[in-house]
Amino acid sequence: MAATELSPYHRLKLTNWRFAPALTLGVILVICAALWSRAEVRPLSEYDQTFYIGIAYDLRTTGRFTDGFGFATADAGQIRPSGMRFSPLYPALVAVAMAFDSNFAHAVDCVVHSNAKDAACPAAAGLIRLMQFLMLAVFFLIVWWVAREVLCSSRAGLIALAIAAMTAPVLLRFVNYVMTEITTLMLLALAIAAVVAAQRRRSISWLFVAGLCLGMTALTRPANLYLGYASALVGFGLVLWGKPRMRKLPLLLAFIGGLAMAVLPWIARNEIVLGRLALTQGYDSHTLVQRIAYNQMNWREYGLFYVCGLPDGIGLAKILFGPKACERFRRDPAATNSFYNIGNGPFMVETVTAAGGWSQHLNYVIRNYILASPLMHLLVTVPFALAGAWINHYWGLFLGIVCAVLTWRALRVGDKGLLVVTLPCWFMLLFHAGVAINQYRYNLILILPYSIAGAWLVERLLPARV
After folding, report:
1. How far is C-alpha 387 from the chain's CA centre?
2. C-alpha distances out from residue 3 to 246, 325, 338, 357, Å
3. Number of folded domains in the chain?
């Protein structure tokens, strides 16, 4: 049976199981709530939380988006200038949570006024964590629905949900961080689900929703805007080479219209307020320099990088190649000679100075370190992509291989339903590997195609249902 052909049994299940979404969501909430109660809560001063809560604090106290307190120094009046180093959606969400959660607002005040150095600051963030918990539940619901649609099987939807639920302990850790991971995960999954709905329902409005959701994702994590560019480029190619052209052009325009509606107001604000017609400034080149520092590795280190990037690869490398085999790949500040600390320190200062400031930094880095050595950059991108793909350790290692096989099969048979799920996620994995020190938390969206791939494999192993 073709991947998009429905048997009478499956068609009946897909159309008549009216209460399935509510029942599925209820089960998801119960299971996740039980696991959530055991998830560790870390201080608000850890990792990138300080950037987002700093911007949210400034938004509440001054009414302006700033760069937060991590990158900008306040003037004598303690009022930071307007900025655009980060996208605005998540800090705005945090600011809303502060307005309704006084305990969280008090905790943010403590972190900001101590410059994130007071270990006694409370870690209260009840409302924003609850919002992220509900977003996670929506994501799991999307996994179930998308798997059911693209695999044309109600059973496959439940199998995919069960497989995705294995990542709940990992995802619930991010629920407890005031960071963008869960918001980005839900929005990007919604964008993919909207494209699947557009295919199934043959409705142009769903492509507008897909573009809008993807634009909101870019307003949460700017890298996702490049997925919008890539999708628009593919769509343009389909319009040029596909038939009938005029029927496909409105579909492309609907997607671009939704994307533009989300991002253009913020870009226009940046032009008006800061004289910069862009989504962000500074953080993109800051991240890229950290990544380019790894291009300095020699061939021995290049080989070790493949091993060190595996699940439990650091331990394996120590056994095979000595206790300091992965030392250069550490992100610990104590590892002063690591590529990360070089990129975040002397190499950063050197390139910003040579470029003449942050406004020219990105173009300078691309021209002098990527376009000047494209092959080296591409070679290092490969192990970075592999290292960022192993979500939940061996869960991601096994299902990543299965998903690659499923993607290749979908390309061969032309299964558009599967391809709109898998290809965007693979693109973002490769993009993150090329522009950042790729980590699995950047690629949590892979849980969606990985779970569907797992369900596809199980369905092939189980007896057919008639």
Report:
1. 15
2. 27, 46, 47, 53
3. 3
Question: Is residue 12 pLDDT above 50, yes or no?
Answer: no
Evaluate whether residue 423 is within a structural domain: no
Contact yes or no for 313/322 (Cβ under 8 A)? no
With residue 95 as reference, give the H or E element that holds it: helix 89-100
Euclidean distance between CA atoms 443 and 181, whole angstroms: 9
Q: How many residues does the chain have?
A: 466
Burial (0-12, 13-18, 19+ Cβ within 10 Å), 35: middle
Q: Which two tokens stand for residue 21?
A: 């979404």
Tell me the per-residue pLDDT of 363-378, one tens digit each, with 9 for 90 and over.
999 999 999 999 999 9
Tens-place pLDDT, residues 227-236? 999 999 998 8
pTM for the whole structure: 0.91
Q: CA nearest 173: which of 114, 216, 132?
A: 132
Q: How far, in Å, CA of 197 to CA of 141, rounded?
A: 14
Q: How high is the mean pLDDT of the chain?
A: 89
| Closest by CA position to 326, among listed 346, 302, 343, 342 | 302
Q: Do the domain assignments include residue 58?
A: yes
- The verdict on residue 327 lying in a domain is yes
Query: 386: which residues sit within 8 A by CB, 6+ positions away?
Result: 306, 309, 310
| CA gap 85, 441 in Å, rounded | 20
Angle at 80 (CA atoms; ends 76, 84), nearest 5 degrees: 160
Q: Which two tokens stand for residue 9?
A: 């049994």
